[in-house]
Amino acid sequence: MAGLDGEWDCVTKSPLGDQKSVLTVKTAPDGTWTGDNAGALGALAVLDGKYDGNTLTWKMDMKVPLPMTLECTATIDGDTLTGGVTAGAFGTSPMSGTRKA
User: Fold this and answer.
1) pTM beyond cutoff 0.85
2) What pLDDT does residue 97 have?
3) CA spacing 20 to 30 A to 14: which of 27, 40, 66, 87?
């Protein structure tokens, strides 16, 4: 879905402080999407990316500072992204972002 595609400047308010990243979204007509989330600790590939309307869901395998699978969701409204990143026992950290020009 073209309105979801692009690069998003994001901030996740994690237990380790604000984590800035760039989320890249490339949708396919079948309701799936691919991309990555690149930040100071490196880039994490999007796994099992799906979208329904303007809501994205995906997973990422984090290796540092702790190995774990992150479960993510985000809703896109125009040039604004809001959502959350769930990191196991650490709970869900809010994520927000804006579309890069």
Assistant:
1) yes
2) 98
3) 27
CB atoms within 10 A of CB 87: 21
Helix (H, G, I), strand (E, B) or coil at 90: helix
User: pLDDT band for position 16 (50/70/90)?
Assistant: confident
The per-residue DSSP string of 30-86 comes to TSBEEEEEEETTEEEE-EEEEEETTEEEEEEEE-SSS-EEEEEEEEEETTEEEEEEE
Q: Are 72 and 58 in contact (CB under 8 A)?
A: yes
Q: Which two tokens stand for residue 45?
A: 């590939």
Domains of the chain: 6-99 (2.40.128.20)
